[in-house]
Amino acid sequence: MFRGLDASGAPFDAPLPERGTALARIQFGATDLASVRNLVANHADAAGLGPMHASELVIAVNEVATNSVRHGGGRGTLTIWLEAFAVICEIADQGHFDKALVDRERPAETVAAPRGLWLANQLCDLVQIRSLRDGTVVRLHKRRSTPAVN
Asked: From start to end of 3-134, where are the E strands?
């Protein structure tokens, strides 16, 4: 049942499901954002996302990682998975917020209005957010145009 933009509680109060083995995992701070972008770009390129979709994923991850630095305790952890149909990037930090659908709300017209999560939602195929007792997790999914062959 959709509860509108004031959604709270289940399913947003449960951790995201575990994924398989991570392709990469790094911790980052303010001085590491270029490394975060480069890591995502390299894996997106290797996964065959194509230049436009790879750039969209890099921008989305950069926006969320920058939020971790600014609002999530100054640092975070980036984890990347490659699945048959998607590249998945997760940013976790120690921050908290109480608006479960914050990425769906159009930001205000003012220059200072936060727009990182909204922008990530515009650029990715799926954005999952959980803000729990031990911090916030944002998982960004970008579909691959051709599935991986094992």
From this structure: 24-29, 75-83, 86-93, 126-132
Residues 6+ apart with CB under 8 A from 46: none
- The ranges assigned to domains in the chain are 28-143
Q: Pick one of 1.10.3720.10, 3.30.565.10, 3.10.560.10, 3.50.50.60 as the CATH number of 28-143.
A: 3.30.565.10
* pLDDT (average), residues 16-45: 95
Q: For 99-128, write each residue's pLDDT tens digit.
A: 655 555 665 565 454 568 889 999 999 999
The predicted-structure confidence for 54-80, as pLDDT tens digits, reads as follows 999 999 999 999 999 998 999 999 999
Question: By the 8 A CB rule, do 60 and 115 touch?
Answer: no
Global pTM value: 0.83
Rounded to an integer, what distance in angstroms lies between the CA atom of residue 91 and that of residue 28?
A: 10
Residue 27 pairs in a beta bridge with: 77
